[in-house]
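Re-running the complex after MR caught last week's input typo. The corrected sequence lines follow. Everything else is unchanged.
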Amino acid sequence: MTSTGTENELQSRLELLAGKAIGDLTHEEHVLVDELLGEQRWQTELWQLEVAAAAIAIRYGPSNLPAKPLDQLPKNLQKIIENDARTFFESQPDLADPTARNSVVSTLSAPLDSKKRSNVPIREWLAWIACAASLLLAMAMWNQRSESVTLSVAKQRELLLESADDLIRTKWIAGKTPFPTTVTGDVVWSPKGQSGFMRFDGMPINDPSVEQYQLWIIDPSRDKNPIDGGVFDVKDSGEVVIPINAKLAVAKPAAFAITIEQPGGVVVSDQSRLPLLAAVP
Amino acid sequence: MSTVSATFPDKRSTADPESLSLLERIGSGDHDAVSECIARYGDLVWHLALKFTDTTADAEDAVQDIFLEIWQKSKVFDRSLASEQTFIAMLARRRLIDRRRRMHSAVTTVAIDGEVSESTQPPAVDAVELCEEAAKAAICMEKLSSVQRTVLTMSIHHGHSHNTIANFLKIPLGTVKSFARRGLLQLRDCMNRNHLTHAGTRSS
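Corrected-run output:
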């Protein structure tokens, strides 16, 4: 290759990295950049470009503009972030304050609403558990995708997976009203920690103004009625992780079920739309 | 994919506890610094999130996500590579860019009105008030062409798509892309020439 050709190639690569720092890459360019970033040299170049872009952002940032209420972090959000931080540090063994270990990991991206207990007869839930068991056998092969598109809460899930010695883990299978496309994923739950996460891949994005997803935890050892696990939304088309927000203590879960409900969820589900189930083996 | 942790050595163990930055304090387990960090940088992160998202709800989600990233990365912050403010803005932008890509949503596509056009002009500020990198960027931005400056501010500050910028400036889309990318490279080179960033001298 000629020196001019080499220079052109270098410039082309640098421009790709600049596009990464700006955030304007096409899908094809992303692939090229990902390859480049296997080398330390290009990582350093990208770092410098990101610094430059961040510097521009600060240059025009709120501290350099006349103060306006809309430019200020809302107070309620500030409190949520502080709570998130508390939860995060509690889940970090190396950083945690040992005096604050009793809180439940459940506040990140928490389901939207808190509902009272359902009165659905447990026999109906158990019928679906039986269905779930048979379907589980049919799902011997399960394609696990990379975790490159998860949110930070996914890291919380990983921490739970690493740290909990009582972890329950079970896969989602189709319920009585399955989604039109295949949805995979799993549920993890720590009875001691009373915390857990749902992971979905391919879950349809919902319009929260029309309908929302609601988790139910079936725990016959505790109560004949399913426990409300929280209302939540799916905003990403890829893999998403949602923390479980059980409204009551869960003693020995037998299954988890997802229903589709009106915005805000329901107190009693009629189970008319029950697309996913996960039976505890 | 590059990661901050792959680039940054952890130097906290040799730092003087009395002079630790907020992130260094958080990284070493001082959770009292969390509230201070939110108070100091919350507006900056919020401002960036509003530029990258379509709704306030999305912005709120993004800000929560960004601060979690900040707590996680606090352990690898190295003040010799960037100021705390720049480091946080970088993490925020990375997260917002990734988030926007994941959601397959276009960059803000609202029509540009007079207010946006007017605000592409940088506010007059004393460079001394800015962190080191931003102060240098302010000086180096002045060395770019007027069009490059406008494209970069519309793209990076306002979060406008290149399509929107092309329509507004009435120049071809490919030209906008070139102006933005080459403008950022020139800006980086200018900042490096003045020895105000040192990341290129480090290795993992």
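None of the earlier attempt is carried over here. Chain B touches chain A through 83 residues (CB under 8 Å). DSSP finds ten helices and no strands in chain B.
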